[in-house]
Amino acid sequence: MTSLEHVSCRVRGIRGPTNGTKDASQKNVIDLSSGDSQKAGLRPLSFIRQVLAGCVYPPLLEDRTFPVDVRQRSETLLDACEERSVGSYTDSSGLDHVRHSIAEFITSRDGVPCSASNVFISGGSQRALMVMVKLLAGTEWDFPTGVLTPMPPPLTLPMLLDEAGVSLEPYRLNKDHKWAVNVDELYRTLTTARWRCKPRAIFISNPSNPTGHVQSRKSIQEVIRFAAAAGLLLLVDEVYQEYVFGDGVEFISYKKILFEMGPPYSDTVEMASFYSISSIGECGLRAGFMELVNIDPRVMHFVDTMLCTDISTPVMGQLALDLMVKPPKPGDASYHTYTEEKKHVENTLKWNCWRACEVLNNLPGVSCESAVGGVYLYPCVNVPVAVVTQAEEREVEAGALYCDLLMEEQAVLIGPGCSCGPPAGTCHFRLCILVSSDILEEALSRIQNFHRGLLESNPEM
Amino acid sequence: MTSLEHVSCRVRGIRGPTNGTKDASQKNVIDLSSGDSQKAGLRPLSFIRQVLAGCVYPPLLEDRTFPVDVRQRSETLLDACEERSVGSYTDSSGLDHVRHSIAEFITSRDGVPCSASNVFISGGSQRALMVMVKLLAGTEWDFPTGVLTPMPPPLTLPMLLDEAGVSLEPYRLNKDHKWAVNVDELYRTLTTARWRCKPRAIFISNPSNPTGHVQSRKSIQEVIRFAAAAGLLLLVDEVYQEYVFGDGVEFISYKKILFEMGPPYSDTVEMASFYSISSIGECGLRAGFMELVNIDPRVMHFVDTMLCTDISTPVMGQLALDLMVKPPKPGDASYHTYTEEKKHVENTLKWNCWRACEVLNNLPGVSCESAVGGVYLYPCVNVPVAVVTQAEEREVEAGALYCDLLMEEQAVLIGPGCSCGPPAGTCHFRLCILVSSDILEEALSRIQNFHRGLLESNPEM
What we know:
By secondary structure, the first copy, chain A, is an alpha/beta fold. Helix content of chain A is 41%, strand content 14%. The two termini of chain A are 35 Å apart.
């Protein structure tokens, strides 16, 4: 995991909290830096796992080990695999059956037709995004390709753009308006970017990773009009579409609004939207998909070819995607359990959001805007001056040093974010709240001990 | 699958066989072009699937659904996963537990210590190979990096080198000596290559994909001495090490021989060797690994970082790797079944090799050297003159056209290989024999009908 990488640069010299906490080496590490909910104590959905177990070892389907709808789904999915085996390769863009299930899900979600031929399955949404970005990068221009990128961005996005050889052109999300997208800022970024690159796409995360903002219909319309005017491809991360919990807030897809707006938008604005199995916690199975809208069929052919280099997306992940977009229906044997388990996750997330904000906002020098969607909080911390001074001496970011110390002293991993300065040393942190409430409570307690301890034990600086 | 791609260029104008065969559209497609044994009718190993099912849905471990050793292995593997879930991410280079199992397997295979820290798990051996090739490509030289590459190569290797921006420097395998590696040819290739690139590695496939050759101890020693003299990294594809069936032929790993040779070879020659779960037929689970030998620790750090871009190898595949390298032992409840199932696969492969050679060598204009290892045959076919003429008119390769026609008329997929000319139109085909014997028999029958029909129905050309 990349998330552990910054830890390898160990930190010495600043006294940590001394108020009776155990040394971190005696504690289990709590990782709130990544959106890995099962690692953080949330349980998988039984229906998903039962169907997958039946597909892995089909003799389980011969008796009543599993409910009848589980057995039926396993049989259907096995029929979709080559020779009924999850061990066979699939087409590079995924199993036809699963692509059709996804297309049905999108059609029903948006009330706008989606064709399975526009759906591409890959080993996680990042893989699909990389294919699109590499396609953009592959032009004859001497000028590099630019991608308008939100600040703060999802954790791995800058690295991905860098690897693809594409220029990251930052647009600031509006912190003073709950991290909304500001269309004036988009135009400003575009104008600046044109001096140094050929801007070809804009990346949007909605619900936002990591700010927890969810865009309104009006905001999405503005972004679509901007993309149309600027001739940019929309790269829309809608991975956390299931997780919207703010009062009166709803998720509306870019696709839905694009088609509400009608021509010329609905038949010209190019878009790729991304979704992932990580959103049901099954990160380790590795699968995601994208829908392409208004993309030239010749480009779609290249997408297929580029996905070929992966040979085949993990089949277990593909089957889990099918189950994610087509869960049990009322009347199915597994419906009740499934619904209860889903509800538990949603309630946990909502509670965690409230609880974490309460604790963090009570800490001196910490403020945390409540999220209305997604799985992250993005609090702002006035890093104690002792840490800022040391960070300057070591020529590292104060936020990164704060994270290292928190890991060293309390075995809690959070991710450093953008600066919120001035003053220097004021910065954001990303903190995943899709975790079990027990674990969150323990993590918050450790963060409190650490932060208060740091303030108390370094009064001289 | 890339294997279907060339089919999209449909072919018209040549009369196919007319001897009463059904139209291909009424037949199921038999794919002998890729090494996907489960797609081709071989069954998965029960032990592997039972353990995986237990890991996917742990309540299955609470009763006697599975044998005791299966339940124990599932428990052990669950303990190795974060929070005992296959849905959690793992470290980018793989689960520690599995890396240790692999290291034990290699140590025991070679009698030479292997450290788990030198083992890197990835989503298939191709992913690991790509990381190594990209590392090689990343130099400051204006000159491109070159990789000495066997002709014929494994199917996807040229595409992979091309994607990495590396120059493919071909060395011919010696057809007159059962496709052995000829060290004089290696020196000739190296000398030529130096005019246009900086050669930095040599790729070897042993047992060979697609020729079926298995290198002798002496041949491996020669290649190692060559790599040492030329300062090349050895990239060794040992994916089919389990499949050696020629009388008196055995698989010996490059690592074992490198250490037999002692210093300076054993402590200076850099090597990456690759293995994959595809070799037990579980292609769809996507996992493989490489062992790095004599690689600078700083480079190993980069390897880790580059594997990070995949975030995490599919967990189900990683667990299957563990089972592949640590199968049931004598006395274990699953030992007998596992051994019988493995024996069945080995016997099938050996029988298929004999049977396919018998049928192919009886066809006019076809000759097929028997393989002694691996999962492919590589017959040479004098493509009928009717096809050669048409191919010239269409500016396509005669071999590719022959494959297209075979697919169109008989729904059998085989892959075109290198030319065996002169005369023009004499070329090789790759044909996977790790398939069920029934399916192979049907495929051979269709190939016979096609080839004889083509000869009979185009007498005028």
